[in-house]
Please model this.
Amino acid sequence: DAGVTQSPTHLIKTRGQQVTLRCSPKSGHDTVSWYQQALGQGPQFIFQYYEEEERQRGNFPDRFSGHQFPNYSSELNVNALLLGDSALYLCASSSKYRNRELFFGEGSRLTVL
Amino acid sequence: QQQVKQSPQSLIVQKGGISIINCAYENTAFDYFPWYQQFPGKGPALLIAIRPDVSEKKEGRFTISFNKSAKQFSLHIMDSQPGDSATYFCAASMGGGGADGLTFGKGTHLIIQP
Model:
């Protein structure tokens, strides 16, 4: 049973560019959440997707957007990258029956130069 | 902004000892308090969680103690082992109609010395 998978694992971008990160949830899960983890900090909630809609959003600007597909996989898009966007981006999945239990992927490490 | 304050920032415990990590929260609407363990290069993994109607929950060597009036909760790791060396995060969320986003503490870097 595959857990949460994320791609790419590492990537380097330049200020002003755009990036797309991808996530496949754990089998049987239908809800995907995205978190940003800066070095040495706890993860910060970006947003959550359920039934292909953004259900809740944290304190992140509109440069951060997402999408959920019918197969429950998800994408995180960040436009106009800033140096401060350098972080580990974590995807977490859960099921509607046990929606508090989040399973995290290993993350995508984004470096903005 | 809703906050969860975690201490200590780092902790060194001898093998076989008890590791204790503390967290305090402000928002009384929080109703779910999990602890996550994160190894380098890995995503956080759920260890144990508690709801405010319970004062203590134990799973194996891991125990959460919860003090609703003080708005504090703590993680105790009994018989700490070198394999427990990791970063630990407390978190909190509100319920409502679904799973709200987790608010994490800043983490505690735990080292268990052999």
